[in-house]
Amino acid sequence: MADIVDEVRRLKAERNAIILAHNYQLPEIQDIADYLGDSLALSRTAAKTDADVIVLCGVHFMAETAAILSPDKKVLLPDLDAGCPMADTLTAERLRELKKKHPKAVVVCYVNTSAAVKAESDICCTSSNAVEVVESLEEDEIIFVPDMYLADYISRKTGRELIVWEGCCPTHAGIKPGDVLRQKRLHPRSEVIVHPECMPEVIDLADEVLSTEGMCTHVKKTDTREFIIGTDPGILHRLRKENPTKSFYAASEESLCSDMKIITLKKVLHSLREMEYMVEVPEDVRVKAKQALDRMLEIG
Ligand code: 13P
Ligand code: SF4
């Protein structure tokens, strides 16, 4: 493994490349990343990097987002099979049909969508800023796609009624209230932190509802020493590394995102060697999708 890591580092320097990795990636990918973060942090880093090449260790929509924001860079996804089953529930065609039924509605799309869906939307959001994005809207009618559980959470926080697309993340939907309650019985002093993609019955059991980056920031600053984490257990590697004196328990060890685990060190090396697999977005789609992303990034 050390040889692969050395070779990745050498090629990265040679190509002026940066490795961006999501918090759910395999430990060895997290350890080699130049930047590790949630969807919002990865988008912001992709938008401002001066590297020539971005190796995106995450899923397809994340690489597309980087390509939309940084058209002058080469964006590589080490395995094109890394997709997002929730993003795949919605096509641009189906969104156009929904918009026809609600012609006055403003469309908010979660970042977990294809570039084509973003291009049909007015504003994008991530789990870090979804509440602020919806709060910023003056329109009476709001379409929110494609996560019905995130939509439910936003509605509760903002009091706004949303027209939803009934998609959800199989990983987060796989975390059941019983999983959290079982861990709480085993670790009664733990704080329960869950992701807003979880179902409402799980959110009801949480002390905090946060994006993956929000989780990393929160556990550092609180005095609590034990945490039950309701999201993909891949994040536990970072949480433990950054907080060696604190204890972390996955709400469910089984509920993990297999797409996020497809990328390996060998694939990253192949990607940098062969400059594969390039993710590109057709210019007309890119320009429209960028408007939705820029409007989100302006919110801060
Ligand atoms: P964040 O890391 O942005 O919170 O999102 C989680 C997720 O499911 C990414 O696909
Ligand atoms: Fe998609 Fe869920 Fe995997 Fe995130 S965790 S990439 S939302 S399937």
3D structure, described in words:
With 300 residues, the protein is α/β, with parallel strands linked by helices. The chain folds into 3 domains: 2-82 and 260-280, Rossmann fold, CATH 3.40.50.10800; 87-168 and 287-298, Rossmann fold, CATH 3.40.50.10800; 171-256, Rossmann fold, CATH 3.40.50.10800. The protein has helices at 2-15, 27-32, 39-48, 60-69, 92-101, 115-119, 130-135, 148-158, 170-173, 177-186, 200-203, 212-221, 235-242, 265-274, 283-298, and strands at 17-22, 35-37, 53-57, 74-76, 106-110, 123-125, 142-145, 163-164, 191-194, 208-209, 226-230, 247-250. Strands 2-1-3-4 form a 4-stranded parallel beta sheet, sandwiched between helices. It has a 4-stranded parallel beta sheet with strand order 6-5-7-8. The longest helix is centred in the C-terminal third of the chain and has 16 residues, at 283-298. It binds 1,3-dihydroxyacetonephosphate (13P) and iron/sulfur cluster. Iron/sulfur cluster binds next to helix 9.
Strand order of the largest sheet: 2-1-3-4
How helix-rich are the residues, as a percent range? 40-55%
3D shape:
globular
CATH architecture of the largest domain: 3-Layer(aba) Sandwich
